[in-house]
Amino acid sequence: MNLTQLPIISVLSDNVTVAQLDDVKVIRVIHDKANAAISLHGGHVLSFTPKGQDDLIWMSKEAIFNPEKAIRGGVPVCWPWFGRIADPAHGFARNNEWTLIEHRENDNGVIIVLGLEASEATKAIWPFEFEARLTVEIGDELRITLDAKNTDSKAWNCSGALHTYLNVADIASTTITGMGPTYIDGLQNAKLCTGEDTLSISAAVDRVYTQPENTVSVSDSQRTLTVTNSGHNAAVIWNPWIEGAESMADMNNDGYKTMVCVESTYHATSLEEAQTVEPGNAFTLTTTIKA
């Protein structure tokens, strides 16, 4: 993603500007440590390029940037649920406009804080009060923290994921470790399976790993990316392969060759079985990505 070509709407500091990308506003960060872009639509990290590196984040060449649709690629925020346990799939956070709350910067990088709060639109889907903050720390590594506080008078349940699409040189030469031995296979009617210590992908993969290490490593022919998570109970690994890519209008047909999702996930099979958050408490999920 060429950040320098985006039309500038406003300048917030030497390192932070607001730019326009089709129909969405993007927080653009250009810093000595790294460049990044975050869409206000969805609170969605679109790009993270440390100095001297290729982008660590994969974006579809056919991604649609408008407020009516979730963005294909980047780091979608799946909340207040992950998956199809309620409607819409993956919750409403990735389809709502977030607000820029704060930006800070120093020699080590830039911190962007976005906010999303309950509205009539969100309560029509999920009838609870909340105050969500997404903190994006951009430096030698990318750290994303979702912190969703219960501001209601009653407890609510939620699950979620930071649905990271990683940019790899070639999926055929990519190996993944640290995901743990057991997984729920979404392509086999949620069958519980046991896998190998190292995962190589040569067909569609849709797995919820139930005993991941805190750090999952993704190695291709050029570099190793690490994804370190907290607040999770699972790691999701996904690649749609050629049939899946061809079925999605917002994904280029060969896009599966250069991406794999490794997601910090709090997984539940229903909202009733999801994490209970009492009034005044928060649901927190973090992912840290580096090369």
UniProtKB/TrEMBL annotation:
<feature type="active site">
    <location>
        <position position="263"/>
    </location>
</feature>
<dbReference type="InterPro" id="IPR011013">
    <property type="entry name" value="Gal_mutarotase_sf_dom"/>
</dbReference>
<dbReference type="InterPro" id="IPR008183">
    <property type="entry name" value="Aldose_1/G6P_1-epimerase"/>
</dbReference>
<dbReference type="Pfam" id="PF01263">
    <property type="entry name" value="Aldose_epim"/>
</dbReference>
<dbReference type="GO" id="GO:0030246">
    <property type="term" value="F:carbohydrate binding"/>
</dbReference>
<dbReference type="GO" id="GO:0047938">
    <property type="term" value="F:glucose-6-phosphate 1-epimerase activity"/>
</dbReference>
<protein>
    <recommendedName>
        <fullName>Putative glucose-6-phosphate 1-epimerase</fullName>
        <ecNumber>5.1.3.15</ecNumber>
    </recommendedName>
</protein>
<feature type="active site">
    <location>
        <position position="163"/>
    </location>
</feature>
<keyword id="KW-0413">Isomerase</keyword>
<dbReference type="InterPro" id="IPR025532">
    <property type="entry name" value="G6P_1-epimerase"/>
</dbReference>
<comment type="similarity">
    <text>Belongs to the glucose-6-phosphate 1-epimerase family.</text>
</comment>
<dbReference type="InterPro" id="IPR014718">
    <property type="entry name" value="GH-type_carb-bd"/>
</dbReference>
<dbReference type="GO" id="GO:0005975">
    <property type="term" value="P:carbohydrate metabolic process"/>
</dbReference>
